[in-house]
Amino acid sequence: MSNGTQSLDRAAELLSLVVRAEESITYTSIVDQTGLARSTASRLLQSLERNGLLERDDDGAFRGGALFAHYARRFDRSEFLVATAQPTLDRVADVTGETVNLAVARGDTVVQVAQVDSTYLLGAMNWVGIDVPPHTSSLGKVMHAFGALPAPKGKLIRVTPATITDPEAYAEELEHVRSVGYAITRGELEPGLDGVAAPVHGEDGRVVAALGVSGPAFRLEDSHKNIGDLLVAESERLTGLIARRARRVSRDDS
Question: Structure pTM?
């Protein structure tokens, strides 16, 4: 085997290891799992990082790089959002300890495309890919309030005793969401389940996703505002990141 082919195989092995890992992977762990000399692993990782195939998180561990987001943006908008938003989801999860979700609008409903699970034994279920009535979730309220989904007309279906079903009351709720910048649900989808969410804007200023936190009411009910403020700040940060990556992709395509 030529040295060039061997280097390619080793680089491919490193890239596969990092991309397939469920979370960012440290340099030491990469060396241990591959058996490569530390100098060889370091050289290959630096090359992969320079070419956008890998990048480091805030702790210096490796994960898939911007090139994957570039590809995803061109061929799958949701994958681009997930790849770009993952560090944001992780930060919110670290601060709150609760389930964190990213959702997008599809048709007339909201689909959750990414989730970081709660660190508590009692946490929310895995909502990825599950449709729920938008007016019963904080993510859906955000989509309605900021125009990512058309506001519903007529009486809304009741899912729990706390569900808002009156159109006028729901319109007032959406106005409040716009005024404070985030949405809250209090047992409106499931008794005892609360949620808070904020909008994420794309490079053109339109809302392209919602970032939310959900969990048992007894843990969240006294911190709705704090979580809302956190989500607004993180969503604005994510909005900026989406715009920068979009500009970079556009430059690369031109």
Answer: 0.69
